[in-house]
Design brief:
single chain; two-stranded antiparallel sheet; 3 helices; 2 strands; 11% strand
Length: 133
């Protein structure tokens, strides 16, 4: 009885070891492919991408603007060239959603108008140091 339990335990242990060892070559190949991909990326090429997206052509890429959409299309063109498929559907790289944003124009101000003894007190706030919309 003891031998049977010991044999069963050793058999299961051996089976687990065998299965673990079998998966190593595939994992090593995947890791090797990943490392090759990472090392194939040029820092100069990455910098070129950053320069393009930061260029005046895209005007800061503020969400909802034409420049933002143009920069997104530029990125999608590269995804297509590299063979990266859309994650959400078969032919769309974008997921539209509403997001509010605020434009702050020069000369804008924020203040609180407090009625006081028949007149008013205005408390002004400085943009960026005291408020950000």
């Amino acid at each position: 009885m003891k031998n049977k339990k010991l044999f069963s335990f050793l058999f299961l242990l051996g089976l687990c070891y065998f299965l673990a060892v079998q998966s190593l070559p595939a994992e090593e190949k995947e890791e090797e492919k990943l490392l090759q991909s990472v090392h194939s990326i040029s820092s100069h090429k990455l910098f070129d991408y950053v320069k393009e997206l930061a260029s005046d052509k895209y005007a800061g890429r503020l969400t909802g603007t034409e420049e933002y959409n143009a920069s997104a299309e530029w990125v999608v063109s590269h995804f297509k060239k590299w063979g990266i498929a859309p994650a959400l559907s078969k032919n769309c790289y974008f997921q539209a959603f509403l997001i509010p944003y605020t434009l702050v124009f020069k000369g804008c101000e924020v203040y609180i108008h407090l009625p006081s003894k028949g007149s008013a007190i205005k408390k002004y706030y400085q943009y960026e140091s005291e408020f950000i919309p």
